[in-house]
Amino acid sequence: MESWINIQLAVAKRLPPIENEAAVLGVLSVNKATYGIYAHTILAQKAGYTELQVKNMLNGVTPLDITERQATIYELAIKMVQLKGPLDSASFDAAVSVLGLVDLESVVQQTAAFMYAALMLNVGDVGLPASV
How many domains does the chain have? Predict the structure, then answer.
């Protein structure tokens, strides 16, 4: 487990925090991991999203007032969580045109890693801290 976390932390440093949070919020909009929503609501706001943007993103709505890169990352993360086969070439090409291949790889890694984390949170039914 420790080596996986080290890889994830190294990859997360390749994108700005606000873009990492776009991927995470995309994942959470689909799988609704309670603790993830709690923690990443705080982290996403610290990264630069407004409370309303976070709320919209957690509800599956792309805010109109975020950057094209952030919207692309958020929407790609949602598609990845919902994949039942290969990502369609139109979505892949659109993401590459906005992000470039290197940053797309970072987004895929960040999204996949958080999909794993969110799955673990949901399987363990990790709720809110007692102080909340």
Answer: 1
Residue 21: which of 7, 50, 5 has the closest Cα?
50
CA-CA distance, 90 to 109, in Å (whole number)? 20
For the stretch 71-87, what's the b/e string if a residue is b when 16 or more beta carbons lie within 10 angstroms of its beta carbon? bbbbbbbbbbbeeeeee
Residue 54 has pLDDT above 90, yes or no: yes
1 — pLDDT class (breaks 50, 70, 90): low
Q: Which two tokens stand for residue 6?
A: 């080290």
CA 23 to chain centre: 2
CATH number of the domain to which 89 belongs: 1.20.1290.10
